[in-house]
Amino acid sequence: MKKVILSIAVIIAMGLTSCKEEAKKVEETVSTEVSEASKDIAMTDLSFGVRGNCGMCKDTIEKAANGVEGVATANWDTDKKKIDVSFDSSKTDEMAIHNAIAASGYDTEKVAGSEEAYKNLPGCCQYDHDMAMNQSGDVKREDHSNHGH
Questions:
Q1: Is 137 left (phi over 0), alpha (psi -120 to 50) or beta?
Q2: How many CB atoms lie within 10 A of CB 114?
Q3: Percent of residues, the chain, with pLDDT higher than 70
Q4: Which residues pair with 88 in a beta bridge?
Q5: Is the Cβ–Cβ distance between 133 and 50 less than 8 Å?
Q6: Are 117 and 104 in contact (CB under 8 A)?
Q7: The pTM is what?
């Protein structure tokens, strides 16, 4: 009788072990599928001009761009008057980002900033509407390199 009970206990223990291993295999499969799915997300990198003056402008512009669903990163360059944006093209598009920035009061290459929002910007952020944007920055680098000669 003891031998029968022990045999059953061993079979049950083996069964539990194999269930755990199968569960691990299932979990591994699921995590692999998730990581493969994230590779399929179509991330788009984009740069375009946005007028602005200072660090406060940078905060507002980046906050507006990052507020668009699907935007992963937004970085506005104060000197070049240019924003670099990375976004999921299955969730948003370039014009949605332009429109969000314009709604916060800033001109982009494609959309004029909201006049109402512009009037509410701090004085230091009220930029010249004719300022050049999306600058390469090459001129400034040349000036610095020639300065010491």
A1: left
A2: 17
A3: 64
A4: 43
A5: yes
A6: yes
A7: 0.66
